[in-house]
Design goal:
By secondary structure, the chain is α/β, with parallel strands linked by helices. Helix content is 40%, strand content 12%. It contains 17 helices and 13 strands. It has helices spanning 11-22, 56-70, 88-98, 112-118, 140-145, 168-171, 184-197, 212-221, 238-254, 260-264, 289-295, 335-347, 349-355, 364-370, 376-389, 406-418, 424-439; strands at 46-53, 76-83, 104-107, 147-148, 151-152, 155-156, 159-160, 162-167, 203-205, 281-287, 302-305, 321-322, 325-327. A 5-stranded mixed sheet has the order 2-1-3-13-6. The chain has a 4-stranded mixed sheet with strand order 9-10-8-11. A two-stranded antiparallel ribbon has the order 4-5. Strand 1, helix 2 (56-70) and strand 2 (76-83) form a beta-alpha-beta unit. Helix 9 (238-254) crosses helix 17 (424-439) and helix 13 (349-355) crosses helix 14. The longest helix is centred in the middle third of the chain and has 17 residues, at 238-254. The chain is globular, with a radius of gyration of 21 Å.
Length: 441
């Protein structure tokens, strides 16, 4: 066993196949039921390393999946390495630079995928696609989002959309029900009602001022291109970010958002420390994968709500992206064998059943293999994802070389503002200047 150490797509097709999986299309025989074509891998013994980040359930299921794959590809040993999100990409960058990276690595979609690919840190898998790497079962949008400059650098493991997580257990005694739709103003107003109804014991929302994925939705709703323009230049302005910081400043001041000391103790992606999970906030602006993970680490019942919509107008702010991808670092000696393993990971029925929804909504064939025996959290995830995909979507954000630093830069500036060490205007000026310096544009 393994040793443990944007382009267009057919929403109709995704909705139809996803709904089919949820409604119980027969499992079995829909993905490769046995070892796939591993002819591209050399015949000799090979030891591969695979690394990823995530929670305990993802870790356990992924280790089991690699055990299954190891038994289906001859002469292959897979050593697994996993941990938390914090520091994962810094470590990976160091490993790649030093020539000691794992052979298969979990990659985030942008900013990380484009940044790593543009820095020549990943292996171009285009020559394998359609041959030893079968991507035909992936939604078109996920296939497109695995490419950078029309070259395949990542293989999607699931479809992800932004979402508001709601602690319905915490809201029940307050006799408050989340609206079916809201804009950013009414989101703040509802968060304030939560704080007031609880006598200040429960904040309405986490403080998302340091989240670049939420800032992106905010910008798209205002008709802005996002943090970066299509040509890779910095599109966000000091005025944009000043308004963003002032919005959250007001929510903190009124008690609608959690105290900054609570929020600063949480790194986005570190699920157990999120203010909602620890009972300090009723709402959290996250991605759809959070629902399943958090349902396993809190006793409270969680639900989905849509992201806040535009203050005015109907500019789409939601987008779909891969929840995670497998990539092969530059310098890997066993690329053929690594590709064979990745192919099994996304095209094997037994693997699909083992993984379940640990990386958001899997591809349509995997959904069929999983079958109709779904938990309430899994059904909610499918329902929310298909509902979002039925609406107008903005293109998934892509970033230029150096863009992976954006989240860290925003966190530093946002916390300086929240702790009162910088004004909103000063924090915005520093953020824009540092992002421009990071990408050289």
């Amino acid at each position: 066993m393994p040793s443990t150490a944007s382009s267009g797509f057919s929403r109709r097709s995704f909705l139809r196949t996803a709904a089919g999986g949820a409604l119980g299309l027969a499992a079995g025989g829909l993905l490769t039921a046995c070892g796939g074509d591993s002819g591209t891998a050399s015949d000799g013994p090979a030891e591969l390393r695979a690394a990823w980040f995530g929670g305990d359930d993802r870790h356990k299921r992924t280790v089991k999946a690699f055990e299954i794959i190891q038994g289906k590809i001859p002469n292959t040993t897979i050593k697994t390495e996993y941990g938390g999100f914090d520091g994962y990409f810094d470590k990976l960058s160091t490993q790649i630079s030093g020539g000691g990276a794992p052979d298969i690595v979990q990659m985030n979609f942008d900013p990380q995928l484009s940044d790593f690919a543009l820095r020549n840190a990943l292996t171009d898998l285009t020559e394998y696609a359609g041959k030893s790497l079968d991507l035909s079962g992936l939604p078109e949008i996920d296939q497109a989002n695995g490419r950078v400059n029309d070259k395949v650098y990542g293989v999607s493991l699931g479809t992800l959309v932004p979402a508001v997580m709601v602690d319905t257990t915490a809201l029940a005694p307050l006799k408050l029900t989340v609206p079916t739709s809201w804009n950013w103003d009414s989101y703040g107003e509802f968060a304030l009602k939560v704080s007031q109804a609880s006598g200040g014991k429960l904040a309405g929302t986490e403080d998302a001022s340091a989240y670049d994925h939420v800032l992106l939705v905010w910008l798209l709703h205002r008709g802005r291109p996002g943090i970066f323009a299509p040509d890779g230049s910095v599109a966000v302005t000091e005025a944009d970010v000043t308004e963003w910081f002032q919005y959250w400043e007001q929510l903190r001041k009124t008690g609608a958002a959690v105290d900054i000391k609570v929020q600063a103790a949480h790194n986005n992606g570190d699920h157990p420390t999120n203010p909602l999970v620890i009972g300090k906030a009723a709402l959290a602006l996250q991605f759809s994968t959070s629902h399943g993970v958090w349902s396993g680490i809190t006793k409270n019942t969680l639900a989905f709500a849509p992201m806040p919509d535009a203050v005015s107008g109907s500019n789409p702010g939601n987008y779909a992206r891969p929840s995670a991808l497998w990539s092969v670092p530059r310098g890997t000696k066993n690329v053929d064998r690594a590709v064979a393993v990745i192919n099994q990971f996304v095209n094997d029925a037994e693997v699909a059943k083992t993984l379940g929804f640990t990386r958001a909504v899997p591809n349509a064939n995997a959904l069929k293999a999983i079958g109709a025996d779904l938990t309430p959290a899994e059904k909610a995830l499918i329902d929310h994802t298909t509902a979002i995909l039925a609406k107008p979507l903005a293109p998934a954000p892509r970033v230029p070389k150096g863009g992976s630093e954006t989240g860290k830069i925003l966190k530093r500036s946002a916390e300086e503002v929240a702790f009162g060490r910088l004004s909103a205007q000063e924090g915005a000026k520093r953020f824009v200047a540092e992002v421009k310096a990071a990408v050289g544009k």
